[in-house]
Amino acid sequence: MFRETLQSQQPVVFRTLTNAMKRGQLSHCYLFTGPKGSLQQETAILLAQSVICSEKKEEWACEQCIECMQVYNREYADLIFIDGSRETIKIEQINKLQQQFSQTALSKAGFKVFIINDCENMTGKASNSLLKFIEEPSSNTLGIFITSQVNRVLPTIVSRCQQISFRPLSAAAFHSEALEKGMDAIDAHLVSAMAHTSGEMEEIRNSDSYQAAVRYFIEFMNYYFDDFRTAMLYLQDNGFKVNARSKDNKKSREVCGYFLQTATIFVNDYHSHVRCDDQSWDSLLEKAENRKFDSRLFLEAVSQTRDALIRSANLALLTDQMLYKLSGGINDK
Ligand SMILES: [Zn+2]
Q1: Nearest to 174 by CA among 149, 157, 141, 197
Q2: Among the four residues 80, 116, 137, 234, which has the most C-beta atoms within 10 Å?
Q3: CA of 51 relative to ligand 1 center, distance in Å
Q4: What is the CATH classification number for the domain harbouring 56?
Q5: What is the whole-number distance in angstroms between the Cα of residue 130 and the centre of ligand 1?
């Protein structure tokens, strides 16, 4: 069953979609992003099956009934699959899609689904026409866009879809492995995204620089959402030191590096509505959602600092520059 594969290979995606279905809060439009081969197409099919299947097991499709088989073989009457992987998607294809979606469903489930693979590969006309269409979602429809190059997808399409990011299978496998090794939810979540090899995960988790960085990040963000000045002073006072007595500049740069990586993961989680089952991390994400978090500005400041960290020797100055950029970051002040 693909469902089990998804659960073990992309546990975050699995959990996100399971929760949405459990609460009856499935979005009308999803954008699956991530490298090719990270199970997006298979997941799109399983999600389509799950809204159509009449013999569901809990939230997910049975993957065995006639409807499930028809969806799997792309022969189901109310499923449209458009593939941009071989040739550019043209407006005629989108028009046909719209026409079919404006009619009543052909099959008894009454649900219509479209899947657009490699959706970045679409003419401008086709994108715009599609945009109008997804702006007015009708009930009982589900659209799934798949891309490995999200920066080439029309921003207006991205903003209207709920984004689900698929990690490279290695990262997903790292994540399960980290949990099996008994790491805390937050460490497993962070180090599996940071590490390049399985062995590196434990190295990172056991380093005092990483531990300090995560502590700083969580403290800093709690201040950041409540009072930016306090957040600023907090980071300036601590100066990314491993501990209060440390004067080791190399270590401090390491802490800063982990801090910035953690910040990048945070923004990714925020965009993809991911939770990691750690109370302090998840409550920060909730704050971000409630406070109109300016993630674009935040990510810009973080990426610029990451680039500068490689070149710059003066960590205090770098911190000040980052804080200056971040100072415009909360909208409701
Ligand atoms: Zn079924």
Answers
A1: 197
A2: 116
A3: 9
A4: 3.40.50.300
A5: 29
Do residues 246 and 253 touch, judged by C-beta distance below 8 A? no
Residue 217 maps to a domain: yes
Token pair recorded at residue 244: 């209060």
In the chain, count H helices and then E strands.
Answer: 16, 5
**Whether residues 43 and 148 fall in one domain:** yes
**Do 60 and 7 fall within a single domain?**
yes
124 in the same domain as 11: yes
Q: How far is the centre of ligand 1, averaged over its atoms, from the C-alpha of 56 (Å)? A: 6
Instruction: Report if residue 66 sits inside a domain.
Output: yes
- 160 alpha carbon – ligand 1 mean position (Å): 29
Q: pTM score > 0.90 for this model?
A: no
Q: Based on the fold, state whether residues 74 and 151 are members of the same structural domain.
A: yes
For residue 256, give both structure tokens.
């800063």
Compute the distance from residue 50 Cα to the ligand 1 centre, in Å. Answer: 7
Distance from the alpha carbon of residue 37 to the mean position of ligand 1, in angstroms: 24
Low-confidence residues of the chain, pLDDT below 70? 329-333
What is the distance in A from the centroid of ligand 1 to the CA of 177?
31
CA of 68 to the centre of ligand 1 (A): 4
Residue 263: which domain range? Answer: 207-326
Q: What is the pLDDT of residues 162-209, one digit of tens each?
A: 999 998 888 888 898 999 999 999 999 999 999 878 888 999 999 999
Alpha carbon of 100 to ligand 1 centroid (Å):
23
**How many other C-beta atoms lie within 10 A of the C-beta of residue 54?**
12
Using the 8-state DSSP alphabet, how is residue 145 labeled?
Answer: E
Q: How many domains is the chain built from?
A: 2
Looking at the structure, do residues 234 and 314 belong to the same domain, yes or no? yes
